[in-house]
Amino acid sequence: MTGFAQTGRSIDDVMSELADKRANDVKWEDGRTFGMVYDGGPEVREVAEQAASLYLHENALNTKAFPSLGAIQSEVVGWTASLLRGPDTTSGFLTSGGTESILCAVKAARERGRIERGVTEPEMIVATSGHAAFHKAAHLFGLTIHSVPVLDDWTADVDAMAALVNENTVLVVGSAPQYPQGVIDDIPSLAAAAASVDANCHVDACMGGFMLPFAERLGRTVAPWDFQVEGVTTISADIHKLGYAPKGVSVILHRTKELRRYQTFLFDDWLGGFYASPNLQGTRSGVPMAAAWAVMSHLGIDGYVDLAKATLDNADQMRAGIAEVEGLTVLGDGQFHLVAFAADPDDDDPVDVFALGDALQRRGWYHDRQTPPDNLHSTVSNSNTGVIGDYLEALRESVDEVRGTATDDRSTSYATLE
User: What's the pLDDT score for residue 415?
Assistant: First the structure.
């Protein structure tokens, strides 16, 4: 542990050291990282940075003090609701990211079940492809969670999930698309299962909320997943992913304001006055909210369609190129921007894909690891425009390098432990 210095340092010295600290970070600016950072291009970065500088010190804890942030939140929520075919009653809030949006959705489902149906031992049902944040929410909020294996096509097993629905069910979860293999669950069937006991149905569209509406405009077939599906009560969508805003900003939408009220925490027995908080945070930075507003305003639907086209072209090229490499197979029938691949199980000399990931990283390409089966995961975006050909060349070279070898490191860490 390093002690805190007694005396301060010059601005130039501080900034120089910060720049040095980034030396080993992934080089997202070069398009060699699949996920984590999503780059909409120079103009998108510029508008976000200018908005951030205007709101560097503003605090969304109290929008009476900062009414501009209240207006920003309302407008961004409204814009997102219109994209996701929400009715006029749709309401929501901005959060710090997909995890917080999911936590808020679970909390709201628990409270609705308790108040409207008298549920004291709440349960929720998810597929094993559902985001880990649902398990985090179950842990934090005291819900029993039922996790159901996926089908061979990696989508949620709707029949198995429906069979678990009972009088204690407060939430049924679907993904559009799910993160690991990029496929969309059967949302209408999941929503119907939830509605059978008047439970909430949450669609985790943190990955798809700012991709699927534009993919549909580009002529891609998109299965029903948003508020057009009767029974969907909440949707989460991350602006800081394919919405191309900087971290961290997401939207949690409720079909009605009456449903939204179950998300908000109210307390009126404090010497500090009446306290109301719609989020898990109290103090909230105005920076990501303003940057999201600025990016969405700058791009408009046409700008997002252009970015979606570039992204889908990148992903299509990547899937096709991987499929041509002997010994590799793409997982799932993904049609959008998520790509996962594993060793071909029928190969006589299977490639160790984790060793392959290490070889790619030595060449400057970063993937997340997943299992089972052992596979490498990519969230493709506009950031990767112009480099997919280079990536595929590096992939072929790396396969040749590692064939017949293996790594002892079988970890699949998607975490911060220190």
Answer: 62
Alpha-carbon span 244 to 127, nearest angstrom = 28
- Looking from the CA of 393 toward its CB, the CA atoms found within 13 Å total 7
Tokens at residue 94, please?
């901005």
Reported pTM: 0.95
Q: Is 392 helix (H, G, I), strand (E, B) or coil?
A: helix
- Answer with the residue of higher pLDDT: 37 or 230: 230
Show the DSSP H helices in 145-266 as ranges. 158-164, 187-195, 212-217, 257-260
Sort 329 into a burial class: Cβ within 10 Å, 0-12 / 13-18 / 19+. middle
Q: Tell whether the torsion through CA atoms of 60, 66, 67 and 68 is positive or negative.
A: negative
8 A C-beta contact, residue 353 and residue 376: yes
Alpha-carbon span 55 to 72, nearest angstrom: 11
Domain range annotation of the chain = 47-298, 301-399
CA distance 418 to 416: 6
Q: pLDDT for 211-230, tens place per residue? A: 999 999 999 999 999 999 99
The conformation of residue 4, written as its DSSP 8-state character, comes to P
What homologous superfamily is domain 301-399 in, according to CATH?
Aspartate Aminotransferase, domain 1 (3.90.1150.10)
Give residue-wise pLDDT tens across range 337-362: 999 999 998 888 899 999 999 999 99
Same fold, 47-298 and 301-399: no
CATH number of 47-298: 3.40.640.10
- Chain centroid, CA 414 distance in Å: 13
Distance (Å, whole) CA 174 – CA 69: 31
Give dist(CA 158, CA 180) in Å, integer: 18
- Residue 122 three-state SS: coil
Count Cβ atoms below 10 Å from residue 38 Cβ, excluding itself.
28
- What is the distance between the alpha carbons of residues 195 and 375, in angstroms, rounded to a whole number? 36
